[in-house]
Amino acid sequence: MSELSYVAALVLGVVEGLTEFLPVSSTGHLTVTEKLLGLSVDAPAVTAYTAIIQLGAIAATLIYFAKDIARLLVAWVAGLRSAEAKKNPDYSLAWAVIIGSIPVALVGFALKKVIEGPLRSLWVVAFALILWSVVMWAAERHHAVLERKDRVRGEHSVGMADGLVIGLVQCFSLVPGVSRSGATISAGLLRGIDRVTSTRLSFFMAIPALTAAGLYEAASTDLSSLGKGQMVLGIVVAFLVAYASIAWLLKFVATNSLVSFVWYRVAAGVVLIAVLAAGALSAT
């Protein structure tokens, strides 16, 4: 492929930063954007680029939640050394994040060729956008019932079992169109965890998963055709847009449900199916 243009790098950086943490599927949106930009979505360098610019979004998460991350790390280390420190809710929360980050790493590595091959089809993206919306809607309905019964749990009640379940559900996000945040937040809601805590857990679990994916792609793929300047631009733009997205989403979920995202996903999926069926855009 020819060298990635700065305009394409800028556009992809914006799309990555905007959609990485919103429950709309960053991979799905990036795949569609790459097609519209005339890029080969299954080219190793393009696939790697979409993973590497995630490092910008991860940097935004690390900075935004720096105090929380430090608090959890201190609690986790203290809990390993002292039985008394294990009673700190942050110790259990730290373990939930650690345990929840393992399944997606294992499944992602084992199915890497499938994820980057057959699953990169826009048909997969379209149907995943619609089908996972049903799960998100069901999660919100379940959460509403628990709220009426005053049975919603907060951050201090999150344990390792919660982390494991959310981590297992996160594996579905390896299918383009599902959305990692859509999967993890929905799992949290179905576990009876409040919406803000579920969203924060989604952010925390993104750090190891996306960092590992980005670094692996950077180390194992020839990125010379993409251009160093374009790579830096994409990462920086993704960082700036993702930081703003994090702040907005946390404020949004404090007083709103995810239903608006559900309708957006369904509409996007339907439009994409129509475009593909009309032959206006190729699926791969």
Give an overview in words:
The chain contains 13 helices and no strands. The chain is mostly helical. The longest helix is centred in the middle third of the chain and has 27 residues, at 122-148. The protein is globular and about 60 Å long.
Chart the SSEs and their pairings:
Layout: H1 6-19, H2 26-36, H3 44-52, H4 54-64, H5 66-81, H6 89-110, H7 112-116, H8 122-148, H9 160-170, H10 180-190, H11 195-220, H12 228-253, H13 259-277
Helix pairs in contact: 1-2, 1-12, 3-11, 4-11, 4-12, 5-6, 6-9, 6-11, 8-10, 8-13, 9-10, 10-11, 11-12
Annotation keywords:
single chain, 13 helices, globular, 284 residues, mainly alpha
Work out the strand percent.
under 5%
Terminal CA distance: 16 Å
Basic shape = globular
Poorly predicted parts: none
Radius of gyration computed on alpha carbons: 19 Å
How many DSSP H or I helices? Answer: 13
Tally the beta strands.
0
Mean pLDDT: 90
The ordered H/E elements are HHHHHHHHHHHHH
Helix content class = over 70%
Number of folding domains?
1
Q: What can be said about the biggest beta sheet?
A: none
Structural class: mainly alpha
Brief summary:
With 284 residues, the chain is an all-alpha fold. It has helices spanning 6-19, 26-36, 44-52, 54-64, 66-81, 89-110, 112-116, 122-148, 160-170, 180-190, 195-220, 228-253, 259-277.
